[in-house]
Amino acid sequence: MSPRAPREAPGAPTIVDVARAAGVSKGLVSLAVNNRPGVAEATRLRVLEVADQLGWRPNLQARTLSTQTTYALGLVLRRDLRIVAADPFYPAFMAGIETVLTEQGRVLVLSVVGDEAAEERAYRTLAADRRVDGVFLNDLRHDDRRVPLLVELRIPAVLLGRPDGDAPFPCVVLDDAAGVTAAVHHLVDLGHREIAHVGGDPALLHARHRRRAFEEAVAERGLVPTAVVDTDFSMTQGAAATAALLAGRTRPTAIVYANDPMAISGLGVLQEAGVDVPGEVSVVGFDGTETARHTHPPLTTIRSDPQEWGAAAARTLLTLTASGSAPDVELAPAELVVARSTGPAPPARST
Amino acid sequence: MSPRAPREAPGAPTIVDVARAAGVSKGLVSLAVNNRPGVAEATRLRVLEVADQLGWRPNLQARTLSTQTTYALGLVLRRDLRIVAADPFYPAFMAGIETVLTEQGRVLVLSVVGDEAAEERAYRTLAADRRVDGVFLNDLRHDDRRVPLLVELRIPAVLLGRPDGDAPFPCVVLDDAAGVTAAVHHLVDLGHREIAHVGGDPALLHARHRRRAFEEAVAERGLVPTAVVDTDFSMTQGAAATAALLAGRTRPTAIVYANDPMAISGLGVLQEAGVDVPGEVSVVGFDGTETARHTHPPLTTIRSDPQEWGAAAARTLLTLTASGSAPDVELAPAELVVARSTGPAPPARST
DNA sequence: CTGAAAGCGCTTACAG
DNA sequence: CTGAAAGCGCTTACAG
Predict the structure, then answer these.
(1) Residues of A in contact with B64 (CB under 8 A)
(2) Which CATH class is domain B15-58?
(3) Where is the HTH lacI-type domain (chains A, B) (predicted)?
(4) Rg, chain A, Cα only
């Protein structure tokens, strides 16, 4: 294939074809289609019309090479597959991102990694290859090492949640605490005094927030938690934690889980053990997943809107890459949705 | 910013820097790092060493512009969000893709769309912008219009499953039928005579395959299906179908669902109606999800390996883009995993 | 308001 | 075996 021969039979039109057909230079075509000042209106219209007739679209790769922008955003998922697979958060979150990227001709580059080393490599590769104009920083962690990493790599980012340290990036926040607080009040109002929490992975900030909100709400009502158990957010550990609570000294009459999958596996453990839900133990999930609506009984849970979160984060990240800064965004807080897995506390029994 | 000034303070090294430092032309550097013939071994080694010292990586965008290859693969998801979110197939499938892309320095471009028009636009945009070197064709449909579309767009593809028409693309096949057949035999062996199927979306080939396998296996054992109901694969329709079966003239003693989420919502409906599982009705899912292991009772289901499917598809697509052709791949078939949601048929009762 | 030219950082025939 | 040059298809100061 000679370098002079067009690669495609008819040859997709290039900016040169448009310039020739419009009788102007290719530089002018570029100015015209990019709405830059310094082009007579009549000329602009003519160029646009010719471009349209020829069916010309600027070649993205060439534009990328010139402008150093890729029109792509990156998302790196680091999670145990068992956990990602059962967790409906990400599909909805990504769909939300897509709603805004699509209409902007942007694209999402996805990376799924297993451990922290692979995660760091993923960010470094995205940066070195200039694959993306910015990234979403999800599953924020305590003292998150990715923040200095992204600063070092000079890659713009939007944080999903409020970081616990300083970070030179805008954040999009969805308050978990309000829902947990409401759940605890709901349970206390139903007469529960022995309430336990099956928390998530304490390395993750949102797991910490949920746990702290639980502890504070319980204290606020003059109680102490019956137990608080950390997990990795997996159904397996949710089930194990539930079994441990059942076997413990004081059996809780209500359990607040840090996500729906664990609440569902907990429900399974309770029912397998012959414990009536909500007759003997009330169960509260977190997420407001589709599955939670279809269990027996349907789960009381705390609902957030991951799709809106994705959309807001994408808008913020695009603003950041375009202008160099973007304001923080506060989304509607997660809220309690009461279903039939919670009910009045059983009459107190002597141990 | 003058066009002569380097964009980054120290300036990431370019091929020119390497050529200068190694005392050769940049063309030779390119030949050396790409392992092309016509470079003296000693020269090649020297170039490589210098490149390494300078920390040079070829600029991906520039390479893309020259070679017209993007080192990226595309996946377009068109599904109702309610369904995607509850379905753990895609996270695992994408993780499988990533395992092979990552080690090849490739990247996955993801698009999530709602309807068929948006889907077509997504493929057209990927092609027009030359975002990807090839795409995964998932959720194969009857007489799939995407096949001629991709031919028209001249974009290589790998089919996930065997198409029902001709297609000039390799396919990676995972046989659904064997597992469904085994499930029916399992139920018949347990004494069931009234077996129903809650199928998936009949527009999708895999839903059709599962349904046909069900019907054939039932016939093979001299029975007729009690009922076969189509759905859209959502938990909601799975629940509705189950309620309809309960209310029907002949109540089935066993139900085979086309996916786990519907089996789970079906289980919820049965239990809410006071129907004992498996005492009165046996339930079989399809997918082998994590959730199915944690329900009460745990689900008998049909397990496949979506992660391996993703990895095999990625390997096939890379082979195709590299060499212009790739052989079809046949994966291990889905297999029955028996748990406690299936049991002996209840004694026959008079209606 | 417009044109001509250089530049983005690679790859690839073509000469020597 | 190596060098010099053209090409990929855009964008962007710089002159006029």
Answers:
(1) 61, 64
(2) mainly alpha
(3) 13-67
(4) 26
pLDDT in tens, A84-127: 777 888 888 999 999 999 989 899 999 999 899 999 999 999 99
* CA atoms of B66 and B63, how far apart (whole Å): 5
Tokens of A150: 């992204």
- A60 phi and psi, to 5 degrees? -65, -40
Domain B72-174+306-331 homologous superfamily, CATH? Response regulator (3.40.50.2300)
Q: Token pair of B288, please?
A: 């082998």
Tokens 């080694």, located at residue = B45
* C8: residue with closest CA to C1': A66
Inter-residue contact B335 to B178 (CB < 8 Å): yes
> Cβ distance A277 to A267 under 8 Å?
yes
Phi, psi at B304, each rounded to 5°? -120, 180
Query: Could you tell me if B204 and B176 are in contact, meaning their C-beta atoms sit under 8 angstroms apart?
Result: no
Q: How far is A208 from chain B (nearest CA, A)?
A: 25
Q: Which residues does A304 contact at the CB level (< 8 Å), separation at least 6? A: A174, A176, A179, A287, A288, A331, A333, A334
Q: Exposed e or buried b for every residue in A53-88, given b needs 16+ CB within 10 A? A: ebebebbbbebbbeeeebbbbbbbbbbebbbbbbbb
Q: Please judge whether B235 and A290 are an interchain contact, meaning their C-beta atoms are less than 8 angstroms apart.
A: yes
Structure tokens at B89: 């197939």
For A72-174+306-332, give the CATH class: alpha beta
Asked if A72-174+306-332 and A177-304 have one fold, the answer is: yes
Give me the CATH code for the A177-304 domain, please: 3.40.50.2300
pLDDT in tens, A242-292: 999 999 999 999 999 999 999 999 999 999 999 999 999 999 999 999 999
**What is the layout of strands, in order, in the sheet containing A195-198?**
A227-229, A195-198, A254-257, A282-284
Domain boundaries, chain B: 15-58, 72-174+306-331, 177-304
Coil/strand/helix, residue B44: helix
